[in-house]
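The methods section describes the discrete structure representation at length, but only in general terms. Each protein is reduced to its one-letter sequence and a matching series of backbone shape codes. I believe one specimen quoted in the main text would settle the matter. An entry of this sort, consisting of the sequence and the corresponding backbone structure tokens, reads as follows.
***
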Amino acid sequence: MAAGNAPDGPTRLDSWKEIAAFLGRDERTVNRWEKELGLPVHRLPGTKGRVYAYTEELSAWLATPKKASGPVSESGAAEDDSAAQAGPRTETQIGPPTSRKNLGLTVIHGRGGTVEPAPFKTAAGEEIRADSTPSPDYRMALGLLALTVSIVGTIALCAVLYFPRVNRTSRNAGQAVASVPHAPPGGDALRSASPSHDPEAEQFYLKGRYYWNKRTPDDLNKALDYFMQAVVHDPNYAPAYVGMADCYNLLREYTLMPASDAYPRALAAAKKAVQLDDRSSEAHASLAFASFFGMWDVATGEREFRRAIELNPNNPVPHQWYANSLVALHRFPEALDEIARAQALDPASISILADKGNILGAAGKRGEALGLLTQLEKRDPAFRSLHLYLKYLYLRERDYPNFLVESRKDALLVRDDAALAVATAAERGFAQGGARGMFEAMLRVQKKFYARNAVPPTALAQTLALLGNKQEALRYLETACQQRDSALIFIKAEPEFDSLHDEPGYRELLVRMNLPLEDAQ
């Protein structure tokens, strides 16, 4: 739930829908929590079924242990674990136990508000304070590891990390025109897990990696749950924090989780992993990813990618992610070299192959890109990135019928109602007025959903640029920069904005985003 500045008193939620949104779960789950776990929900006297709840009470409830047998599923119910049936069942807690309190920093944040990271003490009594950085938005990420402030107060990390789920709308929903993914997916190779003080933590971690590699909305949420359980069993287990960071880095691409929620959490978890194990290539790669794509900290991102590769040159993941960052920097030959290294290290990874196709297209090798991506699409039609990349490729080739087909497939796979509405409008507009009719129809629907906070400003800017409306496109790009729209990091690689390159406003945006003014191909 996006929170504003903390009010003087508790905020009241007046329906099951609002309560579920605050908790980041569906209404069925919170109904069950009220019946089985004592969720503090009140009923209005003299009404039938009318309920209300106070956010302060919900936050306090989340911060206390609730027990259920078996691993906790996304719905909140206990899952049957066949392995557990072979021996005594262990109890898994729903919500953050008290042992989670010393996992990170406290931060106060809000929409349009300021961020002041507070020091915290580790279990050993060591006081740690967030780093000093020039950007308030960057500082927001540094403190979000263990405790985050909601509307009314501090909530333990695990509760906060359970809040944002896939059934919520976001500014990143409905983006119909883009160039490369807002955050490139990671390699399919299983990350190596260092020995854990608690063997159960490692087992939870391995289960998390299994689901993370599947890359569907439900599986990513399952993966996050397992990584969280690994942290509960061993708060000093660095790979679990890496897994959490990697989940958030992908959830804002494969689900409707807002990037403004996902990236700060990813950055905080990655920083914790590096703190625990500075020799971990995986931890530095995750930190690089969140720094570069989420915080627009280009220098830190590139330094951390290189550090991850130095620590383990045979790890395909930093090579893959670094390749995508080089696309954003318009350094295509280097990007192609890095993605080739990633492919050599993990030739079976479909995400690496998909990214290779996308990078080929961005580098102008569109024939090769189309051949590779269409071949992969036949092999794995449910892999979202393939439809995302093909959509952009067909748009730039002016193959509008196939652009429309891929737009619809992509919207359906990511369960994005706004994107589906834009795709439907584009189909009707193209049937009635060709390419211009398509873009005009898209723009009308994009503006409608933008007013509902369900389409990012970059989507409108791209469509306006395609229609030749430079000044209005620049106004939306300025809004995107102010809102830190994560799609903006790839602005240099998007041909839709080529007509803006000589505009002073465009060049000012590049400077503010730490992107080079000149191309380095």
